[in-house]
Design brief:
The complex is a heterodimer. Helices cover 36% and strands 10% of the residues of chain A. Chain A is an alpha/beta fold. Chain A is globular, with a radius of gyration of 26 Å. The N and C termini of chain A lie far apart (60 Å). Chain B is globular. Chain B has 13 helices and 16 strands. By secondary structure, chain B is an alpha/beta fold. Helices cover 31% and strands 27% of the residues of chain B. In chain B, a hairpin with a 2-residue loop joins β9 and β10. The longest helix of chain B is centred in the N-terminal third of the chain and has 15 residues. The chains are: A alpha/beta, B alpha/beta. Chains A and B meet through β3, α8, α11 and α12 of A and α3, α6, α12, β15 and β16 of B. Chain A: GO terms for molecular function: glycine binding; glycine dehydrogenase (decarboxylating) activity; pyridoxal phosphate binding.
Chain lengths: 519, 369
């Protein structure tokens, strides 16, 4: 019998930090310099023109008040520390060992403007990790400048643009071909780079057909961008033929390895014929993900495309590692410096700890775990796997539908996800757009999760499905045990209600409420 | 939300006994003589049961007797019965029942295309929701099953925030007399408002979505920009194809076919003969939309564009517009054609590009319907 977790989140009426504290309260009191020090260095170290005239508007609180405040906030996050089978994100444990490695001063205190002679250690790690990714993909050069998967996809479109421009064919090669279930960043970045987007639909076998690709590619095709498997989890067995067809039309081929977990160590993008690929270090390689911020999309390509890579590229010359900026055909930077280096170090630590055999085994475990999860989900009435008529194993994830349950009970996939938070289980990921199954959700049980974790997660899903039948209103008004009730998404589409800074908050939110008071 | 329900008790009678529909009292008698069983009432009850399970005590307005009331007996629903009149076994019964209900937000009907047409003719702006019971269901107003029609009624009653409305659902019906003579001639009779149940997108990784109208108008602008001089552009019926007329600065004929030459309108609500005359000595392109759910491209509601014109345009001369939402929610990932000429249908089979937005296309496979 699976133990269903019972949970109640802390709920604080916590003010924002700017509204806390009292005048004079301090986190740290620094000693006044001794006279000898003042005499030696003077008292006007900051030039008059640079010294600010007014006091900065900062909260005045003690150190323990600051800690208590952020502890309270961390207790009200609606999850992300529980069992999280959050599909398309490949949730992995971010090891403390790797975290501590990046806190060491050899890394934490260096700056990219230092002379490369003083950066040899960190450059060596970047270079060696480049080699690890080369051996996983067959590519000839990786860079880590992109700040996430979408940024790496954009790097591909920028490289393709430079490649075709160099050949004087950018006016002719104007189209990018992708599939409707490839990650949406592929069409989005290609459009941003000025290409026309040609989408291929999924057909009855659960992936786009070779016929569709043949009809789509032509002398106008600049590149194709695809995932395999995509979010439906079905490996396209015709992939070699796909690349051949695209190459015959002259197109560049990009393998978006967003869903690499199910095939890690099993295939090589180069052997399949691809010209370039990308890995997400913040999902597949055990580095933390952080809301589109300090992530890394590692972009790798063949020697033929390498001249067009953004600069700098870390290369080894003799015994030295240098930052190669002299690349006249470069597509230009997609981001500053060399990327989020601490993330590269964490991914390097993960790869070295796993080893080649460990990476391959992790892939096997993730596929087995996912198929175990699929089987258990299939036993819950009201849930339906995508492409139900296909009797083939999915890889590291697939799309599921709550459609039958929603029709029966009115409980939607959003309601269901909200209710999961009541059990201290992280709400699942629903689906990238377009939603091609009704009331979708996309669970992914990677190699991190134990059988017990997966059973607990399934137990909660089964419990909520039952609740949907016996007490649908309770599910629809969930979460009930969380710090806040339902998050209203409409504010995300209204810039007038965003406030990223205290100043914006005062202008937009307080200003508005003052105006209302006057009225 | 005022929801009324009417049952066409004779809908679907012809199907099981090979009569291809039941328009008209003569056919009904013949179907009953051949042993047909009426099933529309039972299917309406399936929908009403789902509603009662989901929203006990839900309020619903029903036509009297076998047109509604009889199928809700014993269910936990708060029913309002509108007075009935003497039944004639014809379309008049359906229309009279709808009129007797007064102003409604949604008219739920159990029937087929014929019933949809009858209800649409007296809908007065109310939305339509079909419980599928008919022999022919080419219209875009039907739920996929009686149960899902019931689920939609439950959402309309209890979760109106899940509902959005679309105004472009095709109301189509076949001339049954012609069909029994072996001629399939479905006609587009108009567009109905329909409820669409959807779940609000999560905001975390998704972004704001482009609405259907702006996606279509962006696609249409691209098509107009790319128009070649001295080529005849035939614009099919419907909102999607019509957006090309609007992008070129003209009004579109909603149910008819227009034509542009050098971006100027040269035909309005034209028939095949007039279009053929215009096409004489010119290259031809045909601008088409796609019917909802079924995915028909040719042969449903746009027969004014005859086989000769289509053959002249060829597959590469078809310019198709549809939103990605519409294409990804088709029952099968296919565009269906039925030009009336099997050889032409075979020739057109293959992949086409469908414009889905600004600089955005989707490949779709054409199959004969």
């Amino acid at each position: 019998m699976t133990r269903i977790p019972e949970f109640r989140a802390a709920k604080w009426n916590e003010p924002v930090v700017m509204e806390m504290g009292r005048p004079g309260a301090r986190g740290q009191l620094f000693p006044t310099p001794e006279d000898e020090v003042n005499e030696a260095v003077g008292t006007d170290l900051i030039p008059g023109g640079m010294a600010r005239k007014d006091r900065p508007e900062l909260p005045e609180i003690t150190e323990f008040e600051a800690q208590r405040h952020y502890l309270h906030l961390s207790q009200m996050t609606l999850g992300m520390m529980g069992i999280s089978l959050f599909g398309t994100c490949t949730m992995k444990y971010n090891s403390k060992t790797a975290e501590y490695a990046t806190l060491r001063p050899e890394l934490a205190e260096v700056h990219p403007y230092q002379h490369p002679d003083t950066l040899q250690g960190v450059l060596e790690i970047i270079h060696d990790f480049d080699s690890i990714l080369r051996s996983l993909s067959g590519m000839d050069q990786f860079i880590f400048q992109a700040g996430g998967g979408a940024d790496a996809a954009y790097t591909m479109t920028a490289v393709a643009r430079a490649y075709w421009q160099d050949r004087g064919m950018l006016g002719q090669r104007t189209e990018m071909v992708t599939s409707v279930q490839a990650h949406p960043c592929n069409p989005a970045t290609a459009a941003a780079a000025g290409f026309k987007v040609v989408n291929l639909p999924l057909e009855e076998n659960g992936y786009p057909s070779l016929d569709a690709l043949k009809a789509a590619v032509s002398e106008k095709t600049a590149l194709i961008m695809i995932n395999n498997p995509d979010d439906m989890g079905i490996y396209n067995p015709e992939i070699k033929e796909w690349v051949k067809v695209a190459k015959e039309a002259g197109a560049l081929c990009f393998y978006d390895h967003a869903n690499f977990n199910g095939v890690m160590g099993k295939l090589s993008a180069r052997e399949l014929g691809f010209d370039a690929c990308m890995f997400m270090l913040h999902k597949t390689f055990g580095a933390p993900k952080a809301g589109g911020g300090p992530a890394v999309g590692a972009y790798g390509c063949t020697d033929a495309l390498a001249p067009y890579l953004p600069c700098p590229v870390v290369v080894k010359e003799g015994d030295r590692y240098i930052l190669d900026e002299d690349r006249p055909k470069s597509a230009g930077k997609v981001r500053e410096f060399w990327g989020n280096v601490p993330q590269v170090v964490k991914a390097y630590a993960w790869s070295r700890a796993m080893g080649a055999d460990g990476i391959e085994l992790a892939s096997d475990i993730s596929v087995v775990a996912n198929n175990y999860m699929d089987k258990k989900l299939g036993e819950i009435p009201g849930l339906e796997i995508s492409n139900p008529s296909l009797d083939i194993h999915r890889m590291e994830m697939t799309r599921w539908s709550l459609g039958p349950l929603t029709e029966e009970t009115g409980v939607s996939t959003v309601d269901f996800a909200n209710r999961m938070a009541d059990y201290g289980i992280d709400p699942y990921w629903m689906s990238h757009e377009p939603w091609i199954v009704a009331e979708p959700f996309t669970p992914e049980a990677g190699e991190l999760w134990s059988k017990e974790d997966i059973d607990t997660w399934i137990g909660v899903i089964a419990q909520i499905a039952e609740e949907a039948r016996t007490d649908p209103d309770m599910v629809k008004t969930a979460p009930h045990n969380q710090a806040i009730a339902q998050v209203r998404g409409d504010a995300f589409e209204d810039p007038a209600r965003w406030a990223m800074t205290w100043r914006a908050y005062q202008r937009k939110i307080r200003g508005a409420s003052k105006a209302e008071d006057v009225a | 939300m005022r929801i009324g329900l009417v049952v066409n008790p004779f809908a679907g009678l012809g199907g099981a006994v090979g009569l291809k529909g039941t328009d008209g009292p003569g056919t009904v008698t013949e179907a009953l003589r051949r042993g047909a069983q009426a099933k529309a009432g039972a299917r309406a009850r399936l929908a009403l049961s789902r509603l009662a399970d989901r929203v006990p005590g839900a309020e619903i307005i029903l036509a009297a007797g076998s047109l509604g009331e009889d199928w809700a007996r014993g269910l936990d629903l708060d029913t309002v019965i509108t007075p009935g009149s003497n039944l004639t076994g014809t379309a008049r019964d359906t229309k009279a029942a709808v009129r007797a209900m007064g102003a409604l937000d949604v008219i739920v009907f159990a029937g087929g295309d014929g019933t949809a047409r009858d209800v649409a003719s007296v809908a007065e702006g109310a939305a339509l929701l079909g419980i599928p019971c008919g022999v022919k269901m080419h219209s875009g107003v039907f739920a996929v099953s009686p149960q899902s029609a019931g689920a939609m009624m439950a959402d309309l009653t209890a979760s109106p925030d899940r509902i959005t409305w679309a105004d472009d659902a095709e109301v189509m019906d076949i001339d049954e007399e012609a069909l029994r003579r072996g001629i399939l001639a479905p006609r587009l009779y108009g567009y109905a408002r329909v409820p669409v149940s959807c779940t609000l997108m999560q905001a975390a990784k998704g972004g704001p979505r482009q609405d259907a109208a702006s996606a279509l108008s962006s696609a249409a602008r691209g098509i107009v920009d790319g128009m070649e001089d001295r080529t005849l552009y035939i614009i099919g019926p419907g909102t999607s194809a019509g957006s090309v007329m609007r992008a070129a600065g003209h009004t579109a004929t909603p149910l008819g076919v227009d034509a542009l030459l050098n971006r100027k309108r040269v035909a309005q609500d034209a028939d095949d003969a007039a279009l053929c005359a215009l096409a004489e000595g010119r290259d031809v392109r045909v601008v088409l939309g796609v019917t909802g759910q079924q995915g028909f491209l040719l042969g449903r509601g746009n027969q004014q564009i005859g086989p000769a014109l289509i053959a002249k345009a060829g597959r590469d001369g078809l310019i198709i517009l549809a939103t990605e939402d519409k294409l990804t929610s088709l029952a099968h990932p296919r565009l269906l054609i039925d030009t009336g000429d099997p050889d032409l249908d075979a020739e057109l089979t293959g992949f086409v590009r469908v414009a889905t937005g600004a600089n955005r296309e989707m490949m779709m496979r054409i199959a004969s319907g």
